[in-house]
Amino acid sequence: MTKPTSTTTAAARKLWQFHGGLHLPDHKSLSCEQPIQPAVLPKRLVLPLQQHIGAPAKPIVEVGERVRKGQTIAQPDGFVSAALHAPTSGTVVAIEERAVPHPSGLTAPCIVLESDGEDRWVELQPHGNWTTLDASELRNLIREAGIVGLGGAGFPSFIKLNPGARTEIDTLILNAAECEPYITCDDRLMRERADEVIAGARIMRHALHARRVVIGIEDNKPEAHAALRDALARVDRSDIELVQVPTRYPTGGEKQLIKVLTGKEVPSQGLPIDINIVCHNVATAAAVHRAVEHGEPLISRIVTVTGRGVATPRNLEVLIGTPVDDLLRQCGGTTPTLSRLVLGGPLMGITLPHSGLPITKTGNCILALAPGEFGQHGPVRNCIRCGECARACPANLLPQQLYWHARAKDFDKVQDYNLFDCIECGCCAYVCPANLPLVQYYRYAKTAIWAQARDKKKAELARERHDFRTERQEREKAERAAKLAKKKAALEESPAADSEEAKKAAIKAAMERAKAKREAAGVEPKNTDNLTADQQRQIDEAEARRATEKKNESANERE
Amino acid sequence: MFTAILALALLALAFGLLLGYAAVRFKVDSDPIVDKIDAILPQTQCGQCGFAGCHPYAEAIAKGEADINMCPPGGETVVMALADLLGRDAKPVEGGVKEKMVAFIDEQTCIGCTLCLQACPVDAILGAAKQMHTIIEGECTGCELCVEPCPVDCISMIPIKVAPATWTWPYPATSTKPEQAS
User: Which of A17, A375, B12, B75 is the most exposed place for a label (fewest CB within 10 A)?
Assistant: First the structure.
């Protein structure tokens, strides 16, 4: 067969536009030309038990235990959770609280693994012939492999591959947009491992029973696009459509990409599945392929190390748990001008307090920024109500209103303006001429609202328990009173055995009974009557002895 | 003159009767304000307000016998919410805002006397006579009512640890320049 028709029609395909968005200097050429290099095997790996959305995983290894590469070391705890695997062979040296890459800079439970340098795999179970597996078996494999969304949020992928019984999935969208400046890990992945991405897409489609697959890629990545096109041609998949979309931040946002590709809008506070669409990242697709066809769990990912603060920016294939330090060292170290280390992109990333933190499953980029390298800098001024932010907002919100209400801590109002539809893309803050830290206000408001909701729930529980306790105490009191009343009533009817009067009466009755018995037996004999001869003799002897003693005593007294 | 006075008097009487009837006929039941206040209170049942629990305090506020700033566990949030609900002025919390705590029983020292069990307003302590007691952490409101009755002082209040999942972003510290007076 000739070249699939899908790619030829791509040019003519109708595309839509989302509101707002920005054309940003993309800085991708810094890192996108070097091939992916495997990161040096670290001595020590720190694996946070929570690297995903949901409940932290539960460790199933003990300190001192030797593990092989790929061995499960923590199990998912509950439905929304993900397993964790040893990224290399070695010894578990600690399970303790360690600093984790989180904006709070707090510690969280981690498994610390010391590598033995052998990198020996556990026995793997590949499923080359996955077409014979049904959707739920595939999901289980993906769940056991600990795969979470590698695009950034880290939602357990098997859940997003489960449409439920009632929903028919129309479109599976593979997100290859990679819209945020600097980040090139998906770009490199597609250029070098396009076959894996396509294979993963097919597995995902099988698990979802999706009608079609659309891969959306920004037009600033022609090499990756060509690689995917060639890979598609090799497997002859005309049902997988590859679509180039205009480069515009944040096209890689799930809702924005869906809008661009299908013209549909995800409802406010809804999910793509509400409009029969599921969206996965291309790196997740590749991880799914490796998990199913090679049996390899998710133990590594591609990380872009870039920015003017690092000597030789490039992409590395990094074992989960590798310290950021090691990666920077492998990229020639940081330059003296380094001002800020960011995990993630320049707009949505978080500032890292230090470089000793580990890479997690969601860590796509380490950005070492030099002073004034990206974005706007300058003193924060007052909002002048210019409305630039509203023009830039890709979620069609009113960032200025959100800002005022978040600043006033008016959490009801801020929700009226749909705070929770904000994707924290940072467009508003980027264009703000007053340099207001807008996203920080939204993040503050979101977490404060969640905290209030938690408090409210706790108060509700406490009220319930308090009411129950009060009710129980009253019931017990009533029961005691009823018991007492019953006893009293019984006492009045017939004196019970244990009352004071009844006792006296019983004693009296017993004495009377004894008296009657005595009287019936007649006069009691004295104990000196009816004696035997022997007893009489003993008595006589005693009497005589007593008489002589008495005599002696009186004689002594006289003397 | 007389007619005018008579007419006005009659009108006054008529309207008075109408209003009196309307007041009876369209009587509005009092606003269930106590429940609304109670919903705002944090339900720690700690009695730090001087009342026997959150509900009695809510009743007292509704009657106007208590101020709205007597709830240290609720802190500023509760004062603001109550001020908003009741149209009163917000004021600083009496006794200051305290850190959120949870009770902890040192199980080595506990003699199993059950005194704390009886003191706990939300049944968050598990135990029986001569059996070691323990706090059900998720249900403890941090009211400190169990600390006092313990004869061996084995209950301590420890601050609730903030985890990444419960952490909140700080309020942006950047202060904007004051606008220049024009």
Answer: B12
